[in-house]
Amino acid sequence: MSTRAAKRVVLFSGQVGANSTGFVRKVADEARKRTSDPIHVHSIGSRMNRILAELGHEIEPGTILNLDNDILELARHSALAEVIREVEETPGIHLVKTYLSFYWNGVLRSAHSLGQLRELAPELILDVIENGPLVQARIMRSHPKVKQTLRETLEWRADSSILAQVAASSVGSRCKSIVVTRGHNDRRVPNIARIIVDPNCKRCYPSFPMSWVQDMPDTLKEIDGFRDFLFEHMYVSDPADVDERKYAEQAIAALAAGNDSITIDVDGRPYEADAQELVDCLQMIDDQIKARDKAKVKQSHIIVALVPRTKQGMPAPSTGRDQELLYAEMLGKRVYVVYDENNEKAPGPFYTAQPYDVLPTLAAVKDALKRDGYLK
């Protein structure tokens, strides 16, 4: 448990529909278990609603963005000014939930002031990423009069990530922008709490096969064990936490079978997603996977890759993993490769001739990470 005195700010951004407000509160509860520092949660949206009500604006749920932009800016400025004062007056770790932009009725609108962000001076801006089809479904459910396409949702997500980077650069060199994911059923809460309590903790990107091994249960079990091991010991940027491509693949099969939609689970309730829309967005989904994973490699200190054994006893191929290793090498990242000792084929020169630590087991990787100062 950390006992370091702190007076710090962590800003959570992302999209409407990523359901990050409840997630932030779960992260706060988990962080309180890890530090004696007080943890404070501030929701800019909730404060804006209160301020607008005090000004005489009666707002139905889900309609705040229908207000005039000048009124919204006034409420937002007042809400953030309140938080800035509270941060100045109150020691502890302050988690601020806000948005940097809104996409509403076909228009992308700014939702921040760089001047106020500099006053707030966050050390971290956490860009909360969620599966695009889930975000779209939540928006359509909570705002039935709004028609937002999946393509618009994906474009807004990419725009939000860029804005998080710009905001961090504007705040100064002490501020980092980091892509974070909730994971299924918010299972990454402990992961995010780790980096909030210790923003200087070591960050790891795990690289492993995905597409090639879906019909190999033993290999998938090995991959799950590999991921669990890393999450136990450090902050992990897991590429598999955003797995929206599976919906596009299901949509292809649905269209081939003559169906216009697929049923997806959104917060425990079924939602009918348009199959053709998913297929039409497949290229964008793939492009964003590549861009997002590169961003996660870049924000990490180390890369740990897994070359598991297939059911035929051979090393599992993965073009994505191998490209990520090359990209990490280009950035000067430290790379560790777990090359399953039970593979019938020895590692080739693309592993052994590179400046990688090629190791046979997770236990060997743990020893190497301790040796190099990445684990205590």
Detailed description of the structure:
With 376 residues, the chain is α/β, with parallel strands linked by helices. The chain has three domains: 1-201, Rossmann fold (3-Layer(aba) Sandwich); 202-242 and 295-376, 3-Layer(aba) Sandwich (Rossmann fold); 245-284, no CATH class. It contains 14 helices and 14 strands. It has helices at residues 20-32, 44-54, 69-89, 114-120, 132-142, 150-171, 189-197, 217-233, 245-256, 275-280, 282-298, 319-330, 349-352, 362-371, and strands spanning 7-14, 39-43, 92-97, 101-104, 107-110, 124-129, 176-181, 203-207, 235-236, 261-266, 269-274, 302-307, 334-339, 356-359. The strands form four sheets. A five-stranded parallel β-sheet has the order 2-3-1-6-7, with helices on both faces. Strands 9-8-12-13-14 form a five-stranded parallel β-sheet, sandwiched between helices. The chain has a two-stranded antiparallel ribbon with strand order 4-5. Strand 4 (101-104) and strand 5 (107-110) form a beta hairpin. The longest helix is centred in the middle third of the chain and has 22 residues, at 150-171. The chain is globular. The protein starts with 6 loop residues before the first strand and ends in a 5-residue tail after the last helix. The relative contact order is 0.11.
Give the name of the CATH superfamily of the largest domain: P-loop containing nucleotide triphosphate hydrolases
Category from helices, strands and their pairing: alpha/beta
CATH topology of the largest domain: Rossmann fold
Q: Helical residue percent?
A: 40-55%
Order of helices and strands: EHEHHEEEHEHHEHEHEHEEHHEHEHEH
Which regions are unreliable across 5 or more consecutive residues at pLDDT < 50? Answer: 1-5
Q: Average pLDDT value?
A: 91
Total domain modules: 3
> Would you identify the CATH architecture of the largest domain?
3-Layer(aba) Sandwich
Inertia-based shape: globular
Sheet with the most strands: spatial strand order:
2-3-1-6-7
Identify the CATH class of the largest domain.
Answer: Alpha Beta
Compute the number of strand runs. Answer: 14
State the helix count. 14
Terminal residue distance: 14 Å
Q: Major sheet: size, sense and barrel closure?
A: 5 strands, parallel
- Strand fraction equals 15-25%
> Over all CA atoms, what is the radius of gyration?
22 Å
